[in-house]
Amino acid sequence: MRDVAIVSFASAPNRRTDLRNEVEILMPVVQEAVARSGIARPFDFTCSGSSDFLQGTPFAFVIALDAAGAWPPIAESHVEMDGAWALYEAWVKIQAGQAETALVYAFGKSSPGDLPEVLATQLDPYLVAPLWPDSVSLAALQARAWLEKTGNSERDLAAIAVRSRRDAKANPNATLSGDFEIAKLLAEPYVAAPLRAHDCSPSCDGAVAVVLAAGDRARGVCKRPAWIRGIDHRIEPHALGMRDLTVSSSTRIAGEKAGVGNGAVDLAELHAPFTHQEAILREALGLGAGVAVNPSGGALTANPMMAAGLARIGEAASRIWDGSARRAIAHATSGPCLQQNLVCVLEGE
Amino acid sequence: MSEIVSEEGGILTAPHVLEYPYRRSVGPVLGRFFTELRAGRIVGLRTQQGRVLAPPQEYDPETGAATGSDFVEIGPGGVVTTWSWVVRPRAKQPLDRPFAWALVKLDGADTAMLHAVDAGDLSRMRTGMRVRPRWRAERVGHIHDIECFEPEPQATADNGLGGERQRAGAAGDGGQRARGERQRAGELAMAEEAQKPVTNIKTPMRLEYRYSAGIATSRFLHGIAQGKILGQRCPSCSKVYVPPRGSCPRCAVATEEEVELSDKGTITTYAIVRVPSESIDVPLPFASVHVLLDGADLPMFSVVQECPLDQIRMGMRVQAVWVPREQLGPTLQSIRYFKPIDEPDVPAEKLQETV
Hints:
Strand content of chain A: 15-25%
Radius of gyration of chain A: 19 Å
Oligomer: heterodimer
Number of strands of chain A: 12
Helix content of chain A: 25-40%
Structural class of chain A: alpha/beta
Strand order of the largest sheet of chain B: 8-7-6-9-10
Structural class of chain B: mainly beta
Number of domains of chain B: 2
Shape of chain B: elongated
Number of strands of chain B: 21
Radius of gyration of chain B: 31 Å
CATH class of the domain at 4-114 and 203-221 in chain A: Alpha Beta
CATH architecture of the domain at 4-114 and 203-221 in chain A: 3-Layer(aba) Sandwich
Largest sheet of chain B: 5 strands, antiparallel
Distance between the termini of chain A: 16 Å
Order of helices and strands of chain A: EHEHHHEHEHHHHEEEHEHEHEHEE
């Protein structure tokens, strides 16, 4: 396996509503990531993740190329998934020896639509989507199943929200942050019982970009590259009634294949858009109490659709660069109730 | 035009609807499921391992093996395995009052299906409760043939829930006979239709958005509302883009410098259109054109009028025809079309880069 590292990361401010067009949001982010990488364009490979359904603009991902600069023509690919899967594709491209450097970006503009309703369009179009179950209600099915099986309480979920929002105070790109009291949060009404607003990630418009480089190329531009020591992704059946929603088998397997258990873990950035999902993911990855989870505030405080998974990888890499972590786990999810999961193990040298 | 709103920073937004009237073929497995639903029955499909998948699937998600055709009738009652409570139902959802989404494991099935449960109040819901389907009176072979599930009568003391709901009160005397005949005719047609297996279903999709034009395009549209055409110049390669999108796609840098352009330009290419377009309100056939405005480096799309179609050519000089001043608005419809002007053609070699 070739040594491939993340050498830079940048994020948009993740506002609830950002009226700029996708290129206006994305371009400063790409420019910042490129400038920080110290690598001059063109990159050997460019890959992006986004979904046009979010903003209702067909082929928005093509327009978004303007932010990356596609002249003279570049080697490029796009996934209708979170940018973490675009990063996976770029990593494979570098492993195959077809690239030494790659630019990976992702963006999501959720504010133009009703996000929980838009996400219903990703469901089984014969039996489920015609009922229009919103994404929050589906997550709430999972939350109840998990709460009833484990004996945990809504208070335990609120504690996850409180910690995330407190940690997000140090993240200038968080959609929301601050000090909150569990009792006050629990006094709020349900959005979809058993979930309240604090259990759900806020909808926002955002974008992130990272730069990958192989071997000495990475060492040449980055003092302490965040090496990808393992990366794997797994998917489960789409039918919710066929899955055990209280566990994440796909995360567990991806974590095993990526080698999460091969060493001590300092921190984990878990893409958990709902409080209970953080707990399910912790368990699936076997993360003990000593592991700092989502020091960035996580998706509960900034969840740009199609970009929040890639942001987890970027945030985890940032902690390798600054020396605060030696070994970090990053995770991305996609689909309803943690259907598909990607796990990435990052290490400093 | 009145639906266009100028928001913070002068950025324009407008309503935008995505609508797909999908009709989906369902294949033999789901076809059988929907055919049975129409008849008021629910079937699952027994896998080679003996598990009953409900709703049936073409392939066993555990083994990937084709599931065959060992259909078994299940339910109609079942048990709620987990549920969530919707406080404010959305318009497209099955019920217009607070309800539960639930995974329901029907009697005889090994997997659960998602549907709504009309329980009236959150306090009536619990995991493990028994529910049964509330059938729609007129069924077509669709998941909506089950209006929703409802608590089984013994599970609740509420008389309002449980039994079949009273439907459509008695018709008035006057039209009663005619209505009766229409109903019989309708029933006959339904009975005839009901002989045929369900092969496809309608699954319309409609999503409503509030589209934002972004910073650069909003400035352009505000200019249009004043009868001005504003482009933007790239600080790196100096090319002028119109309509501007705030960036140079060649250099991948932001564009900010505004340039007012002439409303005269040159046709770089064209097509004769003979099919109607919803967004272009001119009589057929018409010429759609790319017009390179004087001072711009990228042509913009429009249509040409006041010109016989066989005289339109590359290099032809044209000018915008605007709507009357008082009708100007922040929309490209403020430019009705382009018309020819009495100026010599621009030679082809000068247009090479923009064709």
